[in-house]
Amino acid sequence: MKKRTTKYTVMFIPNGNRQTFSLTIHRYLLYSLLTFLFLFMTGLFILIVKTGDVAIKLQQVDRLKRENLQLSEDNKKLQISNRQIAKIETMTAYLQRLSVSEELEKLNLLSNGQQELEKRGSKITRSEMFQDFRPQTINAERYANAIPNILPVDGWITRGFIDEGEEGNGHTGIDFAAAKGAEIRATAPGIVSKIENDRYFGLMITVRHDYGFETRYGHCSQILVSLRDRVNRGQTIAYVGNTGRSTAPHLHYEVLKNGKYVDPSSYIIGQNE
C-alpha cells in the first residue's frame, strides 16, 4: 500500500541567476494555516457587516434625536399658541360683554328719551327715535352668540370695506383671496334665508342671525346648504369659486346690521388690532 504523504514541499525560483530554494511544510501545519486563513476572512467579513449595521443604527439614533428635539420645539410652540388662544377667547368674551352693555345702554337711553318727549307732547315717532335700532328684550348670551366674529375663509384680504358715502366708490364687504374649493364657513349661527345666482356676486348665500345681523357669501363655486337650513358657527356652507363678475377665485363677504351694510372687520376677532 502506498504511504500517504505527510509533508509538502514548495519550491521558489527567483528571477535572474539567483539560487532556487524550497520550503517543506507538514500537511497538518498547512491545514492549520488554511483553516486559520478561512476563519480570519470569515471573521473579517462578519466584522464589516456588523460595523455597517452599527453605523446605520447610529444614524437612526441621531435622526431620532433630531426628531425628538423638533417635537420638543413644536410642543413649546403649541403651548404658546394655546396660551394665545386662551387670551383671545378671554378678550372675545370681554368684547362681547362690552358690546352687549353698549346696546343695553343705548336701549335704556332711547327709551328714557322717548318717555321724556312724550311727556312734552313731541310729535316725534318711536321709529324716528330708534332709526335702525329695533328695541327688543336682549339676552346677553344670545346677543353675543349672534355676532359674526370669525373669519369666513382661510385667505388674505385683497379689498376692504369702503362706506358708500366715501367719494361714491363704496365696497359693501370684504374680499378674501383664497384657493378655489377652499371651505367657506358660517361666521355665526343662523338660518339660510336666501340662495341666489347673482349677476355680480355669482352663487351667493345669505344667512340671517339674531338681533338684526345678516351675512352674505358671494362668488361660491358650490353651495352645501339649502334654503331654511339652520347652520352653526364654523360650519362649512360652501366652497370658494369664481362665479359672477370675478377675475380670480375669492370670497366676497358682507355683514348687515338691521338692513345696513357695516364693516365686517369690526366684528371679526383680531381684525381691529
Overall description:
- It is built from three helices and twelve strands; from the N terminus they run ββαααββββββββββ.
- The chain has 273 residues and is an alpha+beta fold.
- It has helices at residues 27-119, 126-130, 140-146, and strands at 7-12, 21-26, 156-159, 174-177, 183-185, 190-198, 202-208, 213-223, 230-231, 236-240, 250-257, 260-262.
- The strands form two sheets. Strands 3, 4, 5, 6, 7, 8, 9, 10, 11 and 12 form a ten-stranded antiparallel β-sheet that branches. Strands 1-2 form a two-stranded antiparallel sheet.
- Helix 1 crosses helix 3 (140-146).
- The longest helix has 93 residues, at 27-119.
- The protein is rod-shaped.
Short description:
This protein is α+β, with helices and mostly antiparallel strands and 273 residues long. It has helices at 27-119, 126-130, 140-146; strands at residues 7-12, 21-26, 156-159, 174-177, 183-185, 190-198, 202-208, 213-223, 230-231, 236-240, 250-257, 260-262.
